[in-house]
Amino acid sequence: MMSRSQPAVHPLEVPPLTDAAENAVPMRVRMKDIQGMPGTPAGLALRVCQFVFAAVSLCVMATTNDFPSVTAFRYPHLSPPLISSILSLNRYLVAAVILQSLWSLSLAIVDVYALLVKRCLRNSRVISLFTMGDGITSTLTFAAACASAGITVLIGNDFNNCAQNHCTRFETATAMAFMSWFAVSPSFFLNFWSLASR
Amino acid sequence: MMSRSQPAVHPLEVPPLTDAAENAVPMRVRMKDIQGMPGTPAGLALRVCQFVFAAVSLCVMATTNDFPSVTAFRYPHLSPPLISSILSLNRYLVAAVILQSLWSLSLAIVDVYALLVKRCLRNSRVISLFTMGDGITSTLTFAAACASAGITVLIGNDFNNCAQNHCTRFETATAMAFMSWFAVSPSFFLNFWSLASR
């Protein structure tokens, strides 16, 4: 495993010339142009955006840990199961943005490393790993954001004094999760594209 | 910067080849093998699955058009804004599965035509159009299904007599929308792959 991935990580080492010579030509034509792939400054910027949005969403949600008591106190007409299911959806959103922020942070670190040592991240296995991870985390984040948006619409319509309570925070967290999903999508598509075009 | 990173991308200096001869071979090898693309029987089966799931979801939702009165009658502790927001989310789900079923039906017809006259749908513009349409409809369907799932969790936890009311229908429609999304995803990825690999 390590010895097979070594030529892609150490490009100045001369690899065996069998199929690398065939792959090099389309790589040179296509790979150079697209910014946003792993190992490029635009890719790092995308990762940082993903991490920042997910982290902001997480912070906003984490600072509303008095949400259960406030909700039950202010809205006695809502039944306890309704409140508990709202809270379980909140927990799902928190879990999704935690996963998203950890993934984006680790890939941002990998990008910084690749930029600093001027190494190439164009190994096929690495890119397929990145693609799968991006696909999974972006799907989870999008699902959590959509479910939260549904709940937010519900809460916002039902509670008239939404401005004074935690509703704004909830909406902010949902919007930040959507922004994080928007930032993951280009990374996913670029990785998938580079995986398919080789 | 660009000239310094060039050796990392090109580990080998390759003699210039005629790249038309290189590109022709992998295209012929790849395009033939992958079932599920437009114009293949598996692609037609995928389209039919998408259409059937979306249509079932639509029918289940459309037959519950007495949902507002039933909900307001059975659950007087829910406020009218809460019920109306549940209904607006239902309407969004209905709109999304209508769009999905129309799109899948039209592409199924195109597939049937291509299979009957043995024509190839490998035009680049056609595939990019298919890819965009698949991406948009699948995102809308997935978002609607997730929002409906959030609402379903909420309703299912809150209402104890969920078995006797329209809750099962609502869950069925949501599940069918998810199934339709699952069936759209392979079409989207295969189209994107064939778009990138040419």
From TrEMBL, chains A, B:
It is found in: Cell membrane. InterPro entries: CASP_dom (IPR006702), CASPL-5 (IPR045009). Its main location: membrane. Residues 38-183 form the Casparian strip membrane protein domain. The keyword Membrane applies. Keywords: Cell membrane, Membrane, Transmembrane, Transmembrane helix. Homodimer and heterodimers. This is CASP-like protein. It comes from Escallonia herrerae.
